From TrEMBL:
Residues 3-239 form the ABC transporter domain. Pfam families: ABC_tran (PF00005), BCA_ABC_TP_C (PF12399). InterPro entries: AAA+_ATPase, ABC_AA/LPS_Transport, ABC_transporter-like_ATP-bd, BCA_ABC_TP_C, P-loop_NTPase. This is ABC transporter ATP-binding protein. One of its GO terms (cellular component) is plasma membrane. GO terms for biological process: D-alanine transmembrane transport; L-alanine transport; L-isoleucine import across plasma membrane; L-valine import across plasma membrane. Transmembrane segments: none annotated. It comes from Metarhizobium album. One of its GO terms (molecular function) is L-valine transmembrane transporter activity. The keyword Nucleotide-binding applies. Gene3D superfamilies: P-loop containing nucleotide triphosphate hydrolases. Keywords: ATP-binding, Nucleotide-binding, Transport.
Length: 240
């Protein structure tokens, strides 16, 4: 696909093929176009040219809410919204995108059993169970990143787009988050695209890696391939 802002080409002929059950890492220097590409797949931007095939459907230009309903879930590079909601309510919002919960009353006053299920499945494994009734804004940055992942996963997506899920998160927590993403991938068999700068997390989590630079794909292959590819070393890792 190709994405332009005004006359500027931000993403040029970028192509990616993701299969169910696979975690693809999307890396590249700042400004390479990774977030722009994710925004196009999740419906925030409409590409100037190109196609996005989902099962047998052409979904280019579909709205974010439509895409969420058919199983395209995402997290955000900058978590900011939903600050006043509690952690559990945010997870319920993520859930309701795909699994209607029987009206607003039910949503907020709920069903204790459903709340406990969501807590066990999506909060406990991320160390968030003790915070389930806290508003998002009182949580640490690392916990807020984890809540965003829990929200996206609660919708049980078929395709999960993660935009820097562990940026700014301490190493131990980062590996725990990545491990949880892997376990959910195993359970749901979903496809995952993970944009991330933390190379140790990318290497240990992703089955395949795509490298973008200046809006285009410059490499696709294994972690070992990324580290030895001369073009990648030049534009991304530096020549040193
Ligand atoms: N809404 C917009 N209008 C104009 N230009 C934009 C817009 N969004 C992104 N760009 C430009 O598109 C290019 C790609 O940006 P993008 O945010 O996708 O990069 P990225 O690979 O996600 O970088 P980072 O690793 O820093 O998050 C940049 O040159 C950016 O300035
Ligand atoms: Mg980005």
């Amino acid at each position: 696909m190709t994405i332009r802002f005004g006359g500027v080409v931000a993403v040029n002929k970028m192509e990616i093929d993701v299969r169910p059950g696979e975690i693809v890492g999307l890396i590249g220097p700042n400004g390479a176009g990774k977030t722009t590409f994710v925004n196009a797949i999740s419906g925030t931007y409409i590409p100037a040219e190109g196609s996005i095939r989902w099962h047998d459907e052409e979904i280019v230009g579909r709205s974010p809410s439509y895409l969420a309903r058919i199983g395209v879930g995402r997290t955000f590079q900058n978590v900011a919204s939903l600050n006043d909601l509690t952690v559990l309510d945010i997870v319920k919002v993520g859930r309701s995108v795909r699994k209607p919960s029987g009206g607003l009353r039910q949503f907020f006053f709920g069903n204790r059993r459903q709340d406990n299920d969501l807590t066990d499945k999506f909060l406990e494994p991320l160390g968030l169970a003790d915070h389930r009734d806290s508003p998002l804004q009182v949580l640490s940055y690392g916990h807020r990143k984890a809540v965003d992942i829990a929200r996206a996963l609660a919708g049980e997506p078929d395709l999960l787009l993660l935009d820097e899920p562990v940026a700014g998160v301490a190493p131990a927590e980062a590996f725990a988050l990545a491990g949880f993403v892997k376990r959910i991938r195993d359970q749901l068999g979903c496809a995952v695209v993970m944009v991330e700068h933390k190379m140790d997390v990318v290497m240990s989590t992703c089955d395949r890696i795509v490298v973008m630079a200046a809006g285009a794909k410059i490499f696709e292959g294994s972690g070992a391939g990324v580290q030895s590819d001369p073009e990648v070393r030049r534009v991304y890792l530096g020549d040193a």
